[in-house]
């Protein structure tokens, strides 16, 4: 583990209102139990778990729950995790693509938040790699590189998430 990288907050909820929890159960291929993006029948890639940098939130004056991202981390350049495998506690993850802010977030927060957060430390993770665990509440550490690269960003995913109220 690299010094200083840690989970600062975990936020889940069944709808627009997310709230902090101390730990959460991650189910491989489905997401985080109790969250709006938990898919009992299996989550599409890029729709089960998101990370955001605490430093980016500090700069724009939002909390993790207000950002609508499930895991807030500090001490790591989250955009650099795209295409890499890493662990958050016991959960193995892979950064799939940047998760850009949407109009729904702007409607729930304030005008200009999209511009303030675009390309700023916000990543979607691949749900298929998650190991079942009772806790995501620990340090974040990078794993050795894989020979096979992880899929990259596809604009259609952002549109699909917006259509579902993300």
Describe the structure in brief.
This protein has 166 residues and is an alpha+beta fold. It has helices at residues 54-60, 64-67, 103-108, 113-117, 155-163; strands at 6-12, 19-21, 26-27, 31-32, 49-53, 71-74, 85-88, 91-98, 122-125, 140-142. The chain has one domain: PK beta-barrel domain-like (M1 Pyruvate Kinase, Domain 3, Beta Barrel).
Note the topology.
Elements: E1 6-12, E2 19-21, E3 26-27, E4 31-32, E5 49-53, H1 54-60, H2 64-67, E6 71-74, E7 85-88, E8 91-98, H3 103-108, H4 113-117, E9 122-125, E10 140-142, H5 155-163
Parallel strand pairs: 5-6
Antiparallel strand pairs: 1-2, 1-6, 3-4, 5-9, 7-8, 7-10, 8-9
Explain what you see.
This protein is an alpha+beta fold and 166 residues long. The protein has one domain: M1 Pyruvate Kinase, Domain 3 (Beta Barrel), CATH 2.40.33. It is built from five helices and ten strands, in the order βββββααβββααββα. A hairpin with a 3-residue loop joins β3 and β4 (31-32). The protein is globular and about 35 Å long. The termini are far apart. 37% of the residues are buried.
